[in-house]
Amino acid sequence: MGSTADADWAEYYRRVKDRPPRPLVVRAAEISDQPGTAVDLGCGDGTETVFLLERGWAVTAVDLEPAALELTSQRAGESAALSTEAADLAAYQPAQADLILASASLPFVAPEFFTGLWERLRGALSARGLLAVHLFGDQDSWAQGESAVAGMTFHTRSEVEALLTGFEVLQLQEQEFDGPSGRGPKHWHRFDIIARNNRGQN
Ligand SMILES: C[S@@+](CC[C@H](N)C(=O)[O-])C[C@H]1O[C@@H](n2cnc3c(N)ncnc32)[C@H](O)[C@@H]1O
């Protein structure tokens, strides 16, 4: 069985760094009335952070890997609107933000830390702030069997819906497809979620 500990993220950043920004961040920016403060959790190669900076957002890019933060800073051209934080999401407390983005990163947090992290993200959203996240589904290759990856969190559809209780759900797209990954070809099961904080003033 694989483990999150054996991921080669530096190789991943090299492989994907010329990719376009993910539709999740493009859609979240479109939905927002105006740019504000954003947190990019698990920023990786920095593509989404740079996309937001170019559209006037002030972004805190967060990752466990120093290489991710170096690459993101380099690609942002030392933008004054960028701050970076090296942190483990398992214990991370974001500052209040208008957009919390977690693109292909939250599933890499182990189940025992996931609920606490989700509550901290919810609590850090400004009034009417947006949460834009990918979660991985229970039919994903990495969830079970020979290709299982230890230390990751997967959700059933009903668990995803329960997490979104109290949010205004603007997008809940569930996809299953076969495709490449850093660990070879796999079956992907992913939820692409954009939800608005509906709990009034923070
Ligand atoms: C698949 S990459 C996603 C990068 C980028 N957000 C994207 O959409 O392609 C996952 C990123 O999450 C980071 N990551 C994984 N586990 C983490 C953790 N516990 N705390 C902080 N970052 C983590 C990895 O270092 C990596 O940069």
In short:
With 202 residues, the protein is of the alpha/beta class. It is built from 6 helices and 10 strands; from the N terminus they run E-H-H-E-H-E-H-E-E-H-E-E-E-H-E-E.
Please characterize this protein's 3D structure.
- This protein is 28% helix and 33% strand.
- It is an alpha/beta fold and 202 residues long.
- It has one domain (2-98, 112-135, 149-179): Rossmann fold.
- β3 (58-63), α4 and β4 (82-86) form a beta-alpha-beta unit.
- It is globular.
- The protein starts with a strand and ends in a 5-residue tail after the last strand.
- 37% of the residues are buried.
- The model has no long low-confidence stretch (mean pLDDT 95).
- The structure holds S-adenosylmethionine.
- S-adenosylmethionine binds next to loops.
Q: Any chance you could write out the topology, listing elements then pairs?
A:
Layout (H helix, E strand, L loop, with lengths): L1 E2 L5 H8 L6 H9 L5 E5 L5 H8 L3 E6 L2 H11 L5 E5 L10 E6 L8 H14 E13 L11 E2 L3 E2 L1 H7 L3 E13 L6 E12 L5
Parallel strand pairs: 1-7, 2-3, 2-5, 3-4, 5-6, 6-8
Antiparallel strand pairs: 6-10, 9-10
S-adenosylmethionine (SAM) binds next to loops.
Task: Give short descriptive properties of this protein.
8-stranded mixed β-sheet, 202 residues, 10 strands, Rossmann fold, 28% helix, alpha/beta, binds S-adenosylmethionine, 6 helices, globular
Structural class call reads alpha/beta
Helix content: 25-40%
Ligand types: S-adenosylmethionine
Mean pLDDT: 95
The fourth-level CATH homologous superfamily is: Vaccinia Virus protein VP39
The tally of structural domains comes to 1
- The CATH topology label is Rossmann fold
